Amino acid sequence: MRREDFRSERFGTLATRPLSEWPHAYFLPAPLPRELVLEPVTNAAVSRADIAIGRLAGLGQLVQEPELLLGPSMAQEALASSRIEGTQASLSDVLSVENDDEILDEDLREVDNYLRAAREGVALLADLPITQRFICSLHETLMREVRGDEKSPGELRRSPVWIGSPNARPETARFIPPHQDHLPETLDDWERFVNAPLESMSVTVKCALMHYQFETIHPFLDGNGRIGRLLIGFSLISDGILPAPILHISGYFEQHRTEYYERLQAVRERGEVDEWVQFFAEAVTVRANDSAERIRKLVEIRERYRLAARAERSALPDSSTSSSRTPSSRLRRSGGRSACHSRRHPRCSVGPRITAGYGHSGERAEAVASAGVPTRSGTRSLAASTRTDPSPHPAYDGRVLLAIDTSAGTSVAVVDPATGTPLATRDTEDSRRHAEVIGPFLAEALAEAGITGADVTGVVAGMGPGPFTGLRVGIAAARTFAAAVGVPVLPLVSHDAVAADERDGRRDGPFVVLTDARRREVYWSAYDQTGTRVAGPGLARPADLDEAIRASRPEAVGWDRVTALSIPAWRLGSLAADRLRSGAGFDQDTPSTCGNPTSRCRARRNG
């Protein structure tokens, strides 16, 4: 390594051990930053990647057995990652030996070992965090009976290594990782970083830094690149972002191999972390969208077969001895009642109520927390969602609505369209982690309701107003899910859910709903005493709020104001059910946000 090439100490320094048997300088990485300020262009790339991951996570929930459905794609990922390290094989060769007890070709054994390590990693994550024990176990599987198996499979290196051309010596190497004596301290910091909760860092940025640091530490004598690329998917699974290793990123790295290595080295030499994160985010975006599209097409084929099978079953003659299953039987039952009969049941989540900034919502929250869920006709328990009408709405065939809103926090709900009551909900007020939680929330809500994507007949999407970065995650998830299962998207203004909550809380008189727009601004919508929106949504600074409201609805300036910290998706689902039953239309399928020049909010703000 040339000292003059290392012009930044932001991510590490060159070090030597003068009294040791190793006289050469090596790179000693700095601890990974827990917060990272990035350039606007980098943040934009990261945002695209996070959305792509969220979209993939949502579609991933539709695949109950990823390895069975996506086997060839996983094999292609294993092949691409191995090719980066010089393995010579083809996808047809890999697939042809998939079930062989003994693989004689060494290249094919390397790819097969990669697949084995991938399966082992998924199994280990059920009990282990990502630790040294975890990576050593993967390494032992990866390097078993292949080139490099003499290089201590499953053990951290006990000697220096260097990276360069095949015949490079330490004096001519492009990069020398840290001396083996530094492995304990560098890996300890890496472990803490990988297993820390996502708070102030995007999932894409975390994965980019995690992968960079692992490749820089280079803890094994061989196989570091393949383990490092496996860890990208495992990190996303460990953090609860993806349900399985369905992000196949190595193909992008193989196609851009030279830039991949140069971007990693540029962080070490010049501290060019923005450029590395941009490259990594683009890889995530491209490959996540590719995987999502593949899953969508596979699910579409699966659903075609399911529909054909249902049609064949419906053509069979009736039998007096056959048992029937009504849509409402999908509710878990105990003694004739829904097992999820109130918020007091440990498996029943109706979601937190809107927190009002003016202190009037406490009684309403207490009422909702009791055995009932407010509806237009009063209070009924979840057990009342059992459908008894022999002639359900013809458009719904007894199935359910899925509702999604990310205009504030993240909220997902499964709603009975016959009654508008929730069968399962998941929500959080965290306004920074939409992409990370949307996939798990969808999976948990569907599982709790006891349904699959095939049972969803419409996806209700909260269209804002909300900050564009978070809002589009939910809209993209709704559109993707709807496209995957072949049902319509039903768009609604998110503030209307808060209004419905207020209306059923027996609020007297009109009111204005406020939500955070960031940038020291607020979104607002005005509602009359029936909960009907009469003005907005609009955008204003708090000091200009009265003026903005007065310009649209002068008398609304004096109305009560309700500050909402979250939007209950189940309320949107209930509103959608009402509109479907009454034949009313839906809102414009356009995000309402201050971050989009064509949005309604911006149009209102500019007059």
Descriptive notes:
With 607 residues, the chain is of the alpha+beta class. It has two domains: 38-295, Fido-like domain (Fic-like fold, Orthogonal Bundle); 348-385 and 393-605, 2-Layer Sandwich (Nucleotidyltransferase, domain 5). It has 18 helices and 15 strands. It has helices at 40-60, 66-84, 91-96, 106-124, 132-142, 183-195, 203-217, 224-238, 250-255, 257-270, 273-314, 362-369, 434-449, 468-485, 495-504, 545-552, 569-582, 600-605, and strands at residues 12-15, 26-29, 333-334, 337-338, 373-375, 378-380, 400-405, 410-415, 422-428, 456-462, 489-492, 511-518, 521-527, 533-540, 560-563. It has a five-stranded mixed sheet with strand order 9-8-7-10-11, with helices on both faces. A four-stranded mixed sheet has the order 14-13-12-15, with helices on both faces. Strand 5 and strand 6 form a beta hairpin. The N and C termini lie far apart (61 Å). The model is unreliable at 96-100, 316-398 and 594-607 (pLDDT under 50).
